[in-house]
Specification:
By secondary structure, the chain is an alpha/beta fold. Strands 4-1-5-6-7-8-9 form a seven-stranded mixed β-sheet, with helices on both faces. Helix 6 packs across helix 24 (619-630), helix 11 (333-345) packs parallel to helix 12 and helix 19 runs antiparallel to helix 20. It is globular and about 70 Å long. It starts with 23 loop residues before the first strand and ends in a 21-residue tail after the last helix.
């Protein structure tokens, strides 16, 4: 007799099927968008918004479904992006399951996933493996680790990944004298400085520092499980001892192919593009990149392993959805054609997206990509000016770039193009050349072309920030505040502000919440092209750049979405995300964190205020709230945070004894970026 028990989604599991706590929970994935910092304010002027919410395809679908209700659309979309999944978490889950552990995955450290992490810990799981690969700042790593320790003080946290490796690399550069104290102050806004002061404690029990680290991680966890304290003396381990961090030697680990059985990670009906690596590392040395020295040698995985990983992805609607994670899937045409032929002969029923270099694209390569199932590629255009490209160590002529985009579009492959504004050598003239080149991208083929500009960031681990390069370009300052021979950061921001008036509306900006990991059911390519153009026109009307009937444009946009929708209402979010409390004293607002985190009625009440909900589930703001929990004076120094806490207090009705700072504040949604 068939069981009537409802099947639990893998991402809803709190305990094992036998009801026991998991041995290990792997947490990681996205934890806010690093791109928000690198020119995020300027990019806001390039795309259409509705009540301050980016008018992404996903948002507009719900906006029109609910009769143009901003509130309901925001509630329906609040956790949308966290349905995508990054590589490190699933890989570590599979790796540790192979060691005999019971392991569950929390794919993101934000949104509703944080609430699930809390429940897993409360159910008895005591070991957390924290991947930092998509945490761009130390404060985010520490915020998540602090959250874990707040929920489960006796939990053991082992952290590793890209951010930890970058922090260690920066420490090495300082010790070698490449950077001095003045340089470090200059990079004070870049939080890769976790280990520069070894006497500062963090709520992490062990850090794994190695370009790979799998062998060390397994050995450390096995020793911890056996109560063997000798893990503290292992190579590739950083741990706290006698009031400071102990840095053990870093030694090379053997190469291990990345194997993932996706059937153990996602449900059978998962429609996301799932990450599959073909290689580790990148053979190119772009001077703006701060990953170039983490994996300096490219190692290609056995093609059999790649194909096995793809075959494990569930077939939904007749296809497997794959995101090739390599910085460059096709390093050269000869290899590319051979690799694509193998994929084609494997008959994988695949639809995929990937990163490629425009310089490798030809008509026959584009045709082969399409035959294999490629629907979209991400291209680092950076700049169309030859002098800047030479400074970047990444050269392609504007004509060859346009030819590559055209070849891809002819074969129904859309493009997402990233660019940098303000790199050394940038001027008004070079920036105009880049915009002119974007305007030459074709629009007559069954494909879309998107762009996203980043303000140049002088990252401490990038080659452009090394002393000899600084001297060459007279580069002063760091991260997002800088000057060089031809421009300063303020000038770059001003140039980015001119983009909407200078780009054709048919060439659309990438929307922050319009993830390329999710498909857009029911929308044809032609519909997407119409949406791109209409959004561009409406944004220009709002900016006073274009004179057209705004209401008519909105009606046209609405008709596209209504023509694809059934009459059912999309489910609004299942669970609330965890929020932290700001502390209270007699002169500050406060919210009882335990009450807010545990009371379903309070959570439901908070969800009725989507703009506040979006803010308190943003890890950057959550981190500030956690900081305020330790140091209440943070609220005195940050009026916006103070205002947000006051609004939380009014919504939840919890901890109402504070508030002398806020009695006169208007009762409106706090806007805290």
């Amino acid at each position: 007799m068939a069981s009537d028990k409802k099947k639990v989604s893998k991402w809803d599991e709190i305990v094992t099927e036998s009801g026991k706590p998991f041995d290990i929970v792997v947490a990681g994935g996205s934890c806010t968008d690093a791109a928000d910092a690198a020119g995020g304010e300027q990019r806001k002027g390039t795309f259409l918004t509705v009540d301050d919410h980016p008018a992404s395809i996903q948002y507009l679908r719900e906006y029109f479904r609910y009769g143009r209700s901003e509130e309901k659309a925001a509630r329906a979309c609040v956790d949308l992006e966290t349905k995508q999944i990054t590589l490190a978490g699933p890989y570590l889950q599979n790796l540790l399951m192979g060691e005999g552990y019971t392991v569950t995955l929390v794919p993101h450290c934000e949104g509703g996933h944080l609430l699930r992490l809390k429940r897993i810990l409360e159910a008895g799981t005591k070991t957390v493996v924290l991947s930092t690969s998509f945490m761009y700042a130390a404060e985010l790593v520490l915020m998540v680790a602090g959250f874990i320790k707040e929920v489960a003080p006796d939990a053991t946290i082992v952290a590793g990944g890209t951010h930890i490796m970058k922090a260690w690399k920066l420490k090495q550069l300082v010790e070698k004298g490449v950077y001095n104290e003045e340089h470090i102050k200059m990079y004070s806004s870049v939080t890769h400085q976790m280990f520069l002061d070894p006497t500062v404690p963090y709520p992490v029990d062990a850090f794994i520092v190695n370009p790979r680290g799998e062998a060390t991680l397994k050995a450390v966890l096995n020793k911890m499980a056996a109560g063997d304290e000798s893990w503290r003396d292992m190579d590739n381990v950083i741990h706290w001892r006698e009031g400071q961090w102990q840095f053990n030697p870093m030694v090379e680990e053997p190469y291990t192919p990345i194997r993932i059985d996706w059937s153990k990670v996602v449900d059978e009906d998962n429609r996301c593009f799932l990450p599959v690596p073909v290689a580790s590392g990148c053979p190119f040395k772009c001077s703006f990149c701060d990953f170039w020295d983490l994996h300096p040698k490219e190692t290609r995985h056995p093609i059999e392993t790649v194909i096995d990983n793809i075959r494990s992805i569930p077939v939904v609607d007749g296809v497997r959805r794959v995101f090739f994670t390599d910085d460059n899937l096709i390093p050269d045409k000869t290899y590319g054609m051979k690799f694509l032929k193998i994929l084609l002969e494997a008959d994988l029923h695949m639809r995929f997206i990937s990163f490629i270099r425009a310089g490798t694209v030809t008509e026959d390569l584009a045709e082969m990509l399409a035959k294999c199932g490629c629907t979209k590629v991400m291209i680092g255009v950076e700049s169309a000016a030859l002098d800047i490209q030479k400074n970047m160590n990444k050269v392609i002529s504007p004509d060859k770039l346009v030819a590559a985009i055209t070849a891809l579009n002819k074969h129904s492959i859309s493009t997402f193009n990233t660019l940098i504004c303000g790199f050394p050598g940038e001027t008004e003239k070079t920036f105009s050349l880049t915009l002119d080149t974007l305007n030459r991208f074709p629009t007559e083929y069954p494909a879309t072309n998107e762009y996203q500009f980043f303000k140049f960031a002088a990252l401490p681990l990038s080659r452009i920030s090394l002393p000899d390069m600084r001297k060459k370009f007279d580069l002063q300052g760091g991260y997002l505040q800088w000057t060089h021979k031809t421009m300063d950061s303020e000038g770059a921001a001003e140039l980015m502000g001119t983009i909407p008036a200078r780009i054709r509306p048919e060439i659309g900006p990438f929307f922050p919440s319009e993830t390329y990991f999710l498909e857009d059911p029911g929308l044809t390519v032609e519909m997407k092209k119409q949406i791109t153009t209409l959004r561009g026109k409406i944004a220009r009307v709002h900016a006073g750049i274009l004179k057209e009937d705004d209401a008519k444009l909105w009606d046209e946009l609405e008709q596209i979405f209504l023509s694809t929708q059934d009459k059912t209402v999309a489910p609004v979010l299942q669970e609330a995300s965890t929020i932290a409390a700001a502390p209270g004293d007699k002169c500050r607002p406060k919210v009882d964190v335990q009450k807010v985190m545990s009371d379903p009625k309070v959570i439901k009440q908070l969800m009725k205020h989507p703009r506040i909900w979006l803010k308190v589930t943003n890890p950057k703001i959550l981190g500030k709230l956690l900081q305020a929990a330790v140091d209440p004076t943070v609220l005195d120094r940050d009026p916006k945070l103070n205002k947000l806490v006051t609004k939380l207090q009014k919504i939840t009705g919890i901890g109402v004894e504070g508030g002398a700072h806020t009695d006169t504040l208007p009762d409106t949604d706090a806007h805290h970026e």
